[in-house]
């Protein structure tokens, strides 16, 4: 289990900027009114603190379920264990020498877990005469593109040591577009048409990372997820052209998925293209009805179909609520457990999606 924790720490380390030896300054360093603790337009810290679930990501470690998982793994207190805090409260897992003088480790997932250690860029990054490129050159993580956001999030939102899952931790399924949409934005510039780009980038990052894990430790469950993601991305024009036909060569698959993730930010979407993509996915209803198909394979594909439609619908004004949400909830109910999944029922729901879009 300790090796699995080191793996997650390593994955998170890979997302840090090249100045990873720089020190963390803590969210308190962002709190001045001249930085991100001011009024409207400069209130990013308060948005995170009051509304963002990342700020309270450590609170679940004291819950009964977490304690049961801890007992199974021989963890006396999940709130203090590196196996848990590495993602639920990352600064608590940082070595003391990585904290700037006088800084106490923040609880929860705070600013620098995403933006990188602030020692070298904190004092000047809000100045209007400083460019984005200058901030990045100083060590601030570049989160301007979907692939870069996906790379940052995947370390904790996708990777789960096998021992943790076996002990009762829910399987992690990463879908970038919806996760971004559910956060209270403390950033500006995103448009509805960024959702399809984030969806493809996030799923491609997931495919790349799962392929990497399968190379290190072959696992049937991971392989099944790889096949499902490969199938889903193959439903897109960019995925068809970027990905190999087979998933057997994992090194080739990783490289292709990485190129697909990076290229996703350059794709151009319109409402017509989004509806067309949703229809392409829904046209697979006949496959789900086919009794000759492997039900386990179909369920894994269903697990990527539902978040795909949810993510794409974010680009369509008026798609939220009403019959659309009713159908999606029915599809999600089908996936609550292996025994609840009935391919024919799922097929009927999938087939009805185009008619309930605005």
Explain what the structure shows:
This protein has 358 residues and is mainly α. 54% of the residues lie in helices and 0% in strands. It folds into two domains: 136 residues, no CATH class; 211 residues, no CATH class. Helix 1 runs antiparallel to helix 7, helix 11 packs across helix 16 and helix 17 packs antiparallel against helix 18. It starts with a helix and ends with a helix.
Main sheet overview = none
Pattern of helices and strands: HHHHHHHHHHHHHHHHHH
Low-confidence region ranges: 9-19
The general outline is globular
| Secondary structure tally, helices | 18
- How far apart the termini lie comes to 48 Å
Structural class: mainly alpha
How many domains would you count in the coordinates? 2
How much beta, percentage-wise?
Answer: under 5%
The number of distinct β-strands equals 0
The whole-number mean of residue pLDDT values reads 92
Helix content: 40-55%
How would you summarize this macromolecular structure in one to three sentences?
By secondary structure, this protein is mostly helical. The protein has helices at residues 2-14, 44-51, 64-73, 82-88, 111-115, 132-137, 146-157, 162-166, 176-181, 194-216, 220-233, 237-242, 250-263, 271-282, 285-289, 295-313, 322-334, 343-356.
């Amino acid at each position: 289990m300790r090796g699995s924790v080191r793996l997650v720490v390593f994955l998170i380390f890979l997302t840090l900027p090249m100045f990873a030896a720089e020190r963390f300054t803590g969210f308190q360093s962002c709190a001045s009114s001249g930085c991100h603790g001011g009024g409207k337009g400069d209130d990013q810290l308060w948005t995170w603190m009051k509304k963002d679930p990342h700020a309270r990501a450590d609170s679940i470690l004291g819950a009964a379920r977490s304690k049961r998982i801890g007992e199974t793994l021989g963890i006396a207190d999940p709130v203090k264990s590196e196996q848990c805090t590495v993602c639920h409260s990352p600064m608590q897992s940082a070595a003391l020498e990585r904290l700037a003088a006088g800084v106490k480790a923040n609880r929860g997932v705070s600013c620098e877990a995403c933006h990188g250690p602030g020692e070298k860029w904190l004092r000047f990054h809000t100045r209007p005469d400083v460019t984005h490129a200058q901030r990045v050159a100083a060590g601030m993580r570049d989160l301007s593109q979907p692939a870069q956001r996906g790379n940052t999030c995947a370390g904790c939102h996708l990777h789960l040591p096998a021992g943790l899952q076996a002990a009762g931790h829910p399987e992690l399924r990463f879908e970038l577009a919806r996760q971004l949409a559910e956060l209270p934005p403390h950033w500006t510039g995103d448009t509805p048409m960024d959702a399809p780009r984030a969806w493809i980038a996030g799923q491609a990052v997931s495919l790349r990372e799962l392929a990497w894990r399968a190379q290190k430790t072959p696992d049937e469950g991971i392989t099944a997820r790889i096949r499902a993601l490969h199938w889903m991305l193959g439903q897109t024009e960019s995925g068809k052209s970027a990905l190999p036909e087979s998933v057997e060569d994992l090194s080739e698959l990783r490289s292709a998925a990485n190129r697909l993730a990076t290229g996703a930010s350059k794709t151009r979407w319109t409402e017509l293209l989004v509806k067309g993509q949703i229809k392409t996915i829904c046209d697979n209803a006949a496959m789900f009805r086919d009794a000759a198909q492997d039900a386990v394979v179909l369920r894994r594909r269903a697990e990527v179909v539902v978040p795909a439609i949810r993510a794409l619908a974010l680009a369509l004004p008026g798609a939220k609520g009403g019959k659309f949400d009713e159908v999606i909830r029915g599809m999600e109910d089908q996936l609550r457990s292996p025994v609840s999944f009935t391919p024919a029922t799922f097929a009927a729901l999938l087939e009805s999606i185009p008619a309930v879009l605005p």
